[in-house]
Amino acid sequence: MNKIDSLLDILSKIYQVLVLVYNSKYHGDLVFDEDPQMDRQKVKDYLGISESTYKRKVKEGKLKPLKLPGGDKFYKSELLAEFKESKRRGRV
């Protein structure tokens, strides 16, 4: 079931990209409310965690970075559960 969820997540992201490309091509310079991307350091600051905690959460699968040239990237919306956990523990 995990593979199906991953596939659906990828298809959803592809759809979002296609919608953005279509809209920008046919509607000029519209400004879209995007989900901001965050790099590794911004995520650690946002969640109030250390480098070792970051690595552990990635290994456990709680954080799922996009592996891109220039380092790991995250969408802020995907960090909501971890942000709530950090807030509950008093980190932020």
Provide an overview of this structure.
This protein is mainly alpha-helical. It has helices at 2-26, 40-47, 51-60, 80-88, and strands spanning 37-39, 66-68, 71-75. This is Helix-turn-helix domain-containing protein.
Short description:
It comes from Pedobacter ginsengiterrae. This is Helix-turn-helix domain-containing protein. The protein has 4 helices and 3 strands, in the order H-E-H-H-E-E-H.
Uncertain runs are none
Q: Write the CATH architecture name of the largest domain.
A: Orthogonal Bundle
> What is the spatial order of strands in the main beta sheet?
1-3-2
CA(first)-CA(last) distance = 34 Å
Q: Sketch the topology as an H/E string, one letter per element.
A: HEHHEEH
Largest sheet: 3 strands, antiparallel
The structure class reads mainly alpha
Number of domains: 2
How much is the average pLDDT? 83
The oligomerization state is: single chain
Number of helices: 4
Number of E-type strands: 3
CATH class of the largest domain: Mainly Alpha
CA-based gyration radius: 16 Å
Name the overall outline. Answer: globular
The proportion of residues in beta strands is 5-15%
Helix content: 55-70%
CATH topology of the largest domain: Multidrug-efflux Transporter Regulator, Chain: A, Domain 2
Topology:
Layout: H1 2-26, E1 37-39, H2 40-47, H3 51-60, E2 66-68, E3 71-75, H4 80-88
Tags for this model:
92 residues; Multidrug-efflux Transporter Regulator, Chain: A, Domain 2; 3-stranded antiparallel beta sheet; single chain; mainly alpha; 2 domains
